[in-house]
Write a structure and sequence with these properties.
Blueprint: H1 5-24, H2 33-47, E1 70-74, E2 79-80, E3 92-98, E4 106-112, E5 122-126, H3 135-142, E6 145-147, E7 153-155, E8 165-169, H4 190-207, E9 216-222, H5 224-240, E10 249-257, H6 261-264, H7 267-274, H8 280-287, H9 290-303, H10 306-326, E11 329-330, E12 333-337, H11 346-352, H12 355-361, H13 373-378, H14 380-383, H15 391-396, E13 400-406, H16 414-423, H17 429-434, E14 438-442, E15 445-453, E16 456-461, H18 468-471, H19 473-484
Parallel strand pairs: 2-7, 5-8, 5-9, 9-10, 10-13, 13-16
Antiparallel strand pairs: 1-3, 3-4, 4-8, 6-7, 11-12, 14-15, 15-16
Enzyme class: hydrolase
Subcellular location: Secreted
EC number: 3.4.16.-
């Protein structure tokens, strides 16, 4: 018998095995950008147990709250429990601002004076989505209070108003209680969004001149990884051009953000394999989806337009494939299993529908749009843009940048965030890359791993998923305090700063 026969038989067996493996792990078909976006936002709304009253806040003139410029109302929510100040002792405000560079848009916001000192920095918080209301963070993450039984409120011991005067903004237009009577005001890119935020802050400081000299910081999470650097660039440009009121921008912080998609999307398979939520054979198949994602991402950057929609579909197919493989695991926190419902944020919708609450806030009969499918879809061509490009110039001008990420989040995972932070070209890039990674310590216990150099810091937060201030409230407050005080550095990471 021919001596090569066993070798040929073995070769044939291996080919059949590889073919069978590839077939059995075949990626799910790639959907169009529009159908994929619709499925994604519907899945997200369901996962958080939200039931938006309307898809988007585009209303008739009869429903609109008629305002000119900024109209603000002080309110008092009854807050139970102690210790804590009486809500009447603090300035809690809600209001609308008529955005000047729109047809008819009004931006809704909450403003909470610091429980510590009015001289504390002014911090703005932006929730992502795109198209999800900042009230989700206000009541479930880092706002002054949380829900208790029967929709009663209790003080949040680790609310960020313990270290800052904090604004929660509903944006882009159509989100939360922010509305318009003209659908043409729905934003499609960061230029419109950052200009709206800049216009709002100008008017806010006109109405609150006592805070103009305070340090100013921009914060947020998730898709705010786009909003934040774009807004920071716009604000810094306004300051340098001496436009309007000088806003004392000191820094910005991005939590579990989506900032540089071209770098972050290829890290999905790496993160999934490193955390053992997929097998190596799954990894090999899913990695095949990376090259077309990269090619279309680059086309999006150079060509824009429909190429960005194609890039969205191709790159999100990577995440869809991983989600298909991990089944019931929560992609926002891979420690958890969930059957559709992963979090229950429904109380915020119930609370904000109460007539007494609406009267206190002066919002009339407006819908509360917890998350808007229409706003999400409007931003599809913005999704794959790289907004890390403006950050090096800010770093060179001494603006502090903090990027932090909960270690158990798949969706905006820490590996992808670390990669784009390290990839930025700036004068301190080499030194940042060589800087030691040291423990971030809270009450004598390691709460994360920190790397920093000059104005740039990266923090991986332990025992947290996508929503770091909810999962690790004490650590997130200390992170904010240390960072604003210039103490979140590799040499001082272990230094404890107790909540005020």
């Amino acid at each position: 018998m021919d001596s090569t026969f066993p070798q040929n038989l073995l070769f044939l067996f291996l080919c059949l095995f590889v073919l069978f493996s590839a077939f059995s792990a075949k990626p799910i078909p790639q959907a169009s950008s529009s159908s994929l976006a619709t499925l994604e936002v519907e899945k997200r709304i369901k996962a958080f147990n939200l039931f938006p009253e309307c898809d988007v806040n585009v209303v008739s003139n009869e429903v609109a709250v008629q305002t000119s410029k900024l109209v603000e109302k002080q309110f008092v929510f009854p807050v139970a429990g102690s210790p804590g100040p009486s809500a009447r002792e603090l300035g809690h405000y809600a209001g609308y601002y008529k955005l000047p560079h729109t047809f008819a848009a009004r931006m809704f916001y909450f403003f909470f004076e610091s429980r510590n000192s009015k001289k504390d920095p002014v911090v703005i918080w932006l929730t992502g989505g795109p198209g999800c209301s900042s009230e989700l963070a206000l009541f479930y993450e880092n706002g002054p209070f949380h829900f208790s039984n029967n929709l009663s409120l209790v003080w949040n011991d680790y609310g960020w108003d313990k270290a800052s005067n904090i604004l929660f903004i509903d944006q882009p237009t159509g989100t939360g209680f922010s509305y318009t009577t003209d659908r043409a005001d729905i934003r499609h890119n960061e230029t419109g969004i950052s200009n709206d935020l800049y216009d709002f802050m100008q008017e806010f400081f006109k109405q609150h001149p006592a805070y103009v000299e305070n340090d100013f910081y921009i914060t947020g999470e998730s898709y705010a990884g786009h909003y934040i650097p774009a807004f920071a660039v716009r604000l810094h440009q306004g300051n340098k051009a001496k436009q309007g009121i000088h806003i004392n921008l000191k820094g910005f912080a991005i939590g579990n953000g989506q900032t540089n998609p071209e770098i972050q999307y290829p890290e999905y398979p790496e993160y999934a394999l490193n955390t053992s939520i997929i097998t190596h054979s799954d990894y090999v198949v899913i990695k095949q989806l990376v090259p077309p994602c990269l090619q279309l991402s680059r086309s999006c950057e150079t060509e824009g337009g429909s190429a960005c929609g194609e890039a969205y579909a191709a790159c999100n197919n990577i995440l869809s494939q991983i989600r298909f493989k991990i089944g019931r695991l929560n992609s926002y926190d891979i420690r958890m299993k969930c059957d559709g419902l992963c979090y229950d944020f429904s109380a915020v919708e119930t609370f904000l529908r109460l007539e007494s609450v609406r009267d206190a806030l002066g919002i009339g009969d407006l819908c509360f749009v917890s998350c808007s499918e229409e706003v999400y879809n409007a931003m599809i061509r913005d999704w794959m843009r790289n907004y890390a490009v403006g950050i090096p110039g800010l770093l060179e001008d001494g603006i502090k940048v903090l990027v932090y990420a909960g270690e158990y989040d798949l969706v905006c995972n820490w590996i992808g965030n670390s990669k784009w932070v390290h990839a930025m070209t700036w004068s301190g890039q080499k030194e940042f890359g060589a800087a030691p990674t040291v423990p971030f310590v809270v009450d004598g216990v390691e709460a994360g791993q920190l790397k920093s150099h000059g104005p740039l810091s990266f923090l991986k937060v332990h025992n947290a998923g996508h929503l770091v201030p909810m999962d690790q409230p004490k650590a997130s407050l200390q992170m904010l305090q240390n960072w604003m005080q210039g103490k979140l550095t590799s040499s001082k990471a272990a230094e404890k700063v107790s909540p005020k």
